[in-house]
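hey so i finally got around to running the thing on that chain from the lab meeting. sorry it took forever, my laptop kept dying and i had to restart like 3 times. anyway pasting the input first so we r on the same page abt which one it is
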Amino acid sequence: MHLGFAPHRLWPTTPADLADVLDTARLIENLGFDHVIAGHHLLAGDLGLSPDPLILLSAVAGATSRIRVASSILIAPLYDPLVAAHQAATLDALSEGRFIMGVGTGWDPTEFAAAGAPFAERGKRTDASLAAMRALWRGESEHVLGMPPRTPDGPPVWIGGTSDAALRRALRFATAWHGSGDPETITATGARIAELAESTDRDPSTLALTTVAMLLPPGFELSGRSPGPLLGGERPSRESIVDELGRLSEAGVSSCSLWAPVDAAALPDVLAWAAELAEVAAEVG
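ok and heres what got predicted. didnt touch it at all, straight out
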């Protein structure tokens, strides 16, 4: 199993929390992690700030040489598909194929209202956007992108969401489903994907399972609140964290992306602690 990491705390409270983001991304690469992730919100919220993921990942790709860069996730229905396809193709080309486009429908009606996008149509718009982007990347559209992708058929796509509609979307468009949950939840999701695949021509084993988790190593203090359960339980230990990673791997997870809900100053130490997990995850995966 591969491990990735966010290059800033979850979430930044001031722009100063992002001052060392490129140095942190280089540290993530040097410590042997598989990928860097970046989330997406247009507006500052209860959890803090959120830099634009495509711009952040472009900067990270330029500051690194090996590590993959993944949006986790890009809110697809807030974008014109031609614009999103062009931006993704450009990042795919300039990063030499290191970009992974994680997408989802979004959940915050306030952002949709601010962007002038219909919240109730986000699923339908996401499906249409993915179909249009795939056609553009493959050269099957009436339009020709200003910058073609380096990766044949475009960058890998990870699709988030737990509804049947989201899982069908992943089967139709994605190289991986991208979600969260404990090993039992992931096992159930994998089983549901297999059931839904029976009415398609997609072999469910070709759809990878990827997850996001919140990492608070023992000895570190939680900053604010975590938006999800902590990896390894409410009082995680090294043993409980390693155990849960092992069980996630057994449930079929091929890649786990980590966020650290700690102060920005503590993030390098968290990364150093977590570097050992990358070695363990490689062994169990």
